[in-house]
UniProtKB/TrEMBL annotation:
It catalyses: (R)-pantoate + NADP(+) = 2-dehydropantoate + NADPH + H(+). The lineage of its organism: Bacteria, Pseudomonadati, Pseudomonadota, Alphaproteobacteria, Rhodobacterales. Catalyzes the NADPH-dependent reduction of ketopantoate into pantoic acid. Its EC number is 1.1.1.169. Residues 168-307 form the Ketopantoate reductase C-terminal domain. This is 2-dehydropantoate 2-reductase. GO terms for biological process: pantothenate biosynthetic process. GO terms for molecular function: 2-dehydropantoate 2-reductase activity; NADP binding. GO terms for cellular component: cytoplasm. It is an enzyme of class 1 (oxidoreductase). Coiled coil: none annotated. Pfam families: ApbA, ApbA_C. Pathway: Cofactor biosynthesis; (R)-pantothenate biosynthesis; (R)-pantoate from 3-methyl-2-oxobutanoate: step 2/2. Residues 3-143 form the Ketopantoate reductase N-terminal domain.
Length: 329
């Protein structure tokens, strides 16, 4: 049974290393420039002190997809269709493709591009950061979930990040998207996740984006699942609490290491296009389809696009609140 992970970044590097150290047969399909970095395997760890080392095969040749029994896609949403073209060109028809990406539309897009393959949506509920070359650490508590399929049984019992199989991923994907509404705020703040969430002004913007999204989802009759420590409807209330109440409760509910940053913050740092269209952009698209306004998410999309085009990147909580919330009407 061969697993090929496409994308040797944070999520791909972490899972390829984790699964290889657990004894699974793993190939990591990355870019040619990454070959030297991954030549001696991958160190994986968590923030509680666990550490392991795995040695997946590294290749930058998509022809290697011909040997895969399970393909795990860990590229950014902006790269999904290019990766799908590689899969269509090289992998065997019928191969299972698991998307471990954020957003709600990757699996649908993949299924449309790969009609002869079995596509499974998946969700990674935690954050991964580099701790050195070919060295990845899980720095936020959380789970991995995926659409049920027998081929995933081999990933179910792996410590640190077991893959839980579920019957319906749509509600879970929307539950995760509610958390990912913070990715843009974190990127625009340009401070680590914990430092950002510890500030009421940033949380106000996050809560407003969530409230608006919950209203849109209600119209669309989508009931987002609980993905983090709290139900989706309680989250905006919790985020709106003053710091002196929020911080001690948050400390008990979630582990966020001081180095954690959202993946969009990393995109900004590396000058890569962000996934904004697949996160807050999904909300504004859905709102448009139902003829309702989503000014908070709309404004956040605008600010991220502006930052990507050279505009302001380091927003204080107060300035961001003013820029997003004062123009709501
Ligand atoms: N980072 C995190 O902690 C979390 C990320 N996620 C989600 O997981 C997904 C992956 O994110 P992340 O790991 O951070 O992304 P990264 O940008 O760190 O890694 C993606 C890698 O895939 C490479 N890539 C893109 N297309 C191909 C291709 N066709 N063949 C081979 N390699 C390719 C990219 O190379 P290049 O840059 O050259 O294109 C890059 O090295 C995203 O949807 C993200 O939102 C979910 C939870 C947490
Ligand atoms: C941080 C986390 C886990 C939730 O926002 C994430 O999904 C990301 O960084 O993209």
């Amino acid at each position: 049974m061969q697993i090929t992970v496409i994308g040797a970044g944070a999520i791909g590097g972490f899972f390829a290393g984790l699964w290889a150290q657990a004894g699974l047969n793993v190939t990591l399909l990355g870019r040619a420039r990454q070959a030297a970095e991954y030549a001696n395997g991958i160190t994986v760890s968590d923030a509680q002190g666990w550490q392991g080392h795995g040695q997946p095969r590294f290749t930058s040749d998509p022809a290697a997809l011909a040997h895969a029994d399970l393909i795990v896609l860990t590229v950014k949403c902006t790269a999904t269709l290019n990766a799908a073209a590689d899969i269509a060109a090289h992998a065997r028809a019928g191969t299972v493709v698991l998307s471990l990406q954020n957003g709600v539309s990757n699996a649908t897009d993949l299924a449309a591009a790969l009609p002869d393959f079995t596509v499974l949506p998946g969700m990674v509920g935690f954050n991964v950061v580099p701790t050195g070359p070919a060295s990845w650490q899980k720095v936020v508590s959380g789970h991995v979930k995926a659409q049920r399929h027998p081929i995933l049984d081999q990933l179910a019992a792996i410590d640190i990040a077991p893959v839980e199989q579920v019957a319906d991923m749509e509600r879970i994907a929307w539950g995760k998207l509610l958390l990912n509404l913070n990715n843009a705020i974190n990127a625009l703040s340009n401070v680590p996740l914990r430092e950002e969430l510890w500030q009421w002004h940033y949380r106000r913007v996050f809560a407003a984006a969530q409230r608006e999204t919950l209203r849109v989802l209600k119209q669309a009759n989508i009931k987002p699942a609980k993905v983090g420590a709290m139900s989706p409807t309680l989250m905006p209330l919790f985020l709106s609490l003053p710091d002196f109440i929020f911080r001690p409760i948050a400390n008990r509910l979630m582990q966020i290491s001081p180095t954690a940053r959202t993946s969009m913050c990393e995109d900004f740092a590396q000058g890569k296009p962000s996934e904004i269209d697949f996160l807050n952009g999904e909300v504004t698209d859905l709102a448009n389809r139902y003829g309702i306004a989503a000014p908070v998410n709309h404004r956040i999309v605008e600010l991220v696009r502006d930052a990507e085009n050279g505009g302001r990147r380091e927003w204080s909580g107060r300035d961001l609140t003013r820029a997003v919330l004062s123009r709501r009407k």
